[in-house]
Each structure stands twice: as C-alpha cells, then as structure tokens.
Design brief:
Elements lengths: L1 E4 L5 H13 L8 H6 L4 E5 L6 E11 L2 E9 L8 H15 L4 E6 L2 H5 L4 E3 L5 H6 L13 E6 L1
Parallel strand pairs: 4-5
Antiparallel strand pairs: 1-2, 2-3, 3-4, 5-7, 6-7
Length: 152
Amino acid sequence: MAIRKAKITDVREIQRLIELSAKKGEMLSRSLSELYDNLRDYYVFQEEEQEPIIGTCAMHICWEDLAEIRSLVVREEYSRQGIGTKLIEACLSEAISLGIYRIFALTYKPDFFHKFGFKVVDKTALPHKIWADCIKCVKFPECDEVAVLIEF
C-alpha cells in the first residue's frame, strides 16, 4: 500500500471517487477540468499499481500563508483503516515543506480533523477562501460545512 502524487492517468478515477462522495452530500463535485488544472494538488492511495485507487486527497495553496485540504475521500469498504489519516499527513507534510503553516479544511466531519490538531474556526477567518472558491459554490452563502484550521 502506498501514497503517491497523482498522475494524469488517475484523473478520471479520482473524479469517480469524488462523485461517489458528492452524491451522498459529503463533498462538492469536481469537474474534470478542475482536476486536470489542479492535478499537482492531489495524492492517491493505491495498494498496487494496476489496482483501483482506494483514496484521494488534495492540498491546495490558497495564499502565501494558507493552504486547504480538500477532496478527501476513501472507498467505503476501506474506511477506518487509517488511509484518510495517511492522506491528511501527506498533505500536511507537503504544506509544511513549502513553508505554509496555516492549513484549513471545510468539512462535514470536524471530529476527524481534531485528531490532527485542527480547531473549528468561523469561516470569516478565511477571507481568501471565501472570495476565491466559495463564491462559486452552489451552497454560497448558505454553506453548511464546518471550517477547521491548524497553525504550526
């Protein structure tokens, strides 16, 4: 089992994973165009090279001092095996290696993020996010996700 940066050949499978979760209302959909544009943000978890991707997560740089963890999804049959944790750890590690020490997520599962040290914050504490991505969301301004933030 291994975590690796996503490759161009992974994009359609990443989108299928995200869509499964989006249809349940657990996250927002991502278009193929958006995934191709942001491919370098994504990590995947895959047991063997020719097997399906089990999980994915992205670390997206928002500003000089702020990054977002987004699109965390693990196939349901593999949940509670530490895969989501490993994906989050890879994203946090990359952010820190780039000198970004404020990382947030918008989530329906804030308790999962608490174990890493994330704290719930008001969305207004994330102005770059609100005006960059949130304003394009179908749920804006009635967002029901919880904002969590960690600062190193």
